[in-house]
Amino acid sequence: MTRAVLFRDSLGNLTGFSVKGHAGYAEEGSDIVCAGISVLTTTCVNALESVAGIEPEVRGGEDGFLEARLPSNLTDMQMHDAQVLMGALHQGLSDLADGYPMYIKLSIRRG
Q1: Would you give the distance in Å from CA 54 to the centre of its chain?
Q2: C-beta neighbour count of 96 within 10 angstroms
Q3: Looking at the domain assignment, is residue 31 inside a domain?
Q4: Which of 3, 8, 29, 109 is the most exposed place for a label (fewest CB within 10 A)?
């Protein structure tokens, strides 16, 4: 199962995400749930950089691990753009979790 966590600050802004684990829906290379998660998270990071001009702090590793956090020094416009992109990620991960509840768990954490 993939565990996805979205991070929110005290104002309710989405400030990052973390995903870890393989969904286990199908064999590696054929797993549509893992592919969907990968597309959503990678597109979010890439769009933060190329569309919003934001350099998120990104870490990756074994077992499908990817984490991205927004920097703390964003302009109001960058924060707005980041919220649109992070909101789209939230919607996509939520839709996957609703459609494949045995393969992805989504939670939201403050801090």
Answers
A1: 15
A2: 21
A3: yes
A4: 29
Q: Which domain holds residue 42?
A: 22-110
User: How does pLDDT run across 68-97, given as a tens digit for each residue?
Assistant: 999 999 999 999 999 999 999 999 999 999
- Whole-model pTM? 0.94
What is the rounded CA–CA span in Å between residue 87 and residue 70?
A: 13
* Token pair belonging to 93: 């991960």
Domain count, the chain: 1
Residue 77 inside a domain? The answer is yes
Residue type, 86: M
- Single-letter amino acid, residue 72: S
3 part of a folded domain: no
pLDDT digits (tens, 9 = 90+) for 42-53: 999 999 999 999
Buried b (16+ CB within 10 A) or exposed e, 24-62: ebeeeeebebbebbeebbeebbebbeeebebebeeeeee
Distances (CA, A) of 59 to 64, 75, 76, 80, 100: 11, 23, 25, 23, 26
